[in-house]
């Protein structure tokens, strides 16, 4: 491990899981102007029937995804890193921009992706994304490989973005040359239950407001049944209800239970037998208020060389600091536009290049 979990120390005044989680919202970062080059990526039209991995809200239209390409700020690029946002996010969110800037300053080129329906790419494709959306990610990887040329292609997934990239590697183990995930759900059912706790009421309301607005802004429209689910009685009251009404049926799952089971990467990681899978670093705070840590702890116990040498030899590292909140990790010694986890991702990826 490049940096140990014990090396993270919260910095004042961002103490506790909620202040760690909300730091960038409470005190927005003085980010430089976004000068990323806009790149659009064509998606394959959907012609087959419903099934996991094929977004059905597009009514046969493939559409496009929007990504922002950032060059390194020093020297020639030593690799290209896809940075994928989480639930309700986009290429412009503080956590994505912050991570991208850290990577650029370390000599990496960056591709910040907007998932289907997200942020400035909302008008380019119908529908919305899911925790497993390989039909959308595979064309992105092909485009990223072309941009990278002979350089390695890495991934950094924030929250649900990490879950998506882990699911991508289930289908295409060599799609990336290395992947870092930060605060990413491995068990979607447990995550849905956790975000629904009374203490997380404000978080869940904030996420639902963004998800409902994102869905209703679809330039290709929504079905009458979807509109009723989104607006009747004030709309869905939980993330689980939203997934049951929108995400699961759009991506061909028979129920929200089938969606959560099929799109959760924990079992795949525990039973990993792929000899060619990219190296992985999974970072997760033990006090994450959104995503329970138990799945990561279960995986960490299996990574121990004495317990499962096969997993350990295949480049799977789990890092669980005691503190950090949900994708916070604002620690002692961080720069004004960085976090401990940002630096950890940079160091780990740099070690892979070296």
Task: Describe the secondary-structure layout.
Layout: H1 17-26, E1 37-42, E2 64-70, E3 80-84, H2 94-105, E4 109-114, H3 134-148, E5 153-158, H4 160-171, E6 179-182, H5 188-195, H6 201-216, H7 224-231, H8 239-250, H9 256-262, H10 266-270, E7 280-283, H11 294-303, H12 309-313, E8 316-319, H13 340-353
Parallel strand pairs: 3-4, 3-5, 5-6, 6-7, 7-8
Antiparallel strand pairs: 1-2, 2-4
Helix pairs in contact: 2-13, 8-9
Task: Kindly describe this structure.
With 354 residues, the chain is α/β, with parallel strands linked by helices. It has a domain at 5-9 and 62-195 and 266-353: 3-Layer(aba) Sandwich (Rossmann fold), CATH 3.40.50. Helices cover 38% and strands 12% of the residues.
Oligomer description: single chain
How helical, in percent, are the residues? 25-40%
Bin the strand percentage: 5-15%
Class based on secondary structure composition and strand pairing: alpha/beta
Instruction: Tell me the number of strands.
Output: 8
For the structure shown, list the relevant keywords.
single chain, 354 residues, alpha/beta, Rossmann fold, 8 strands
Summarize this structure briefly:
With 354 residues, the protein is an alpha/beta fold.
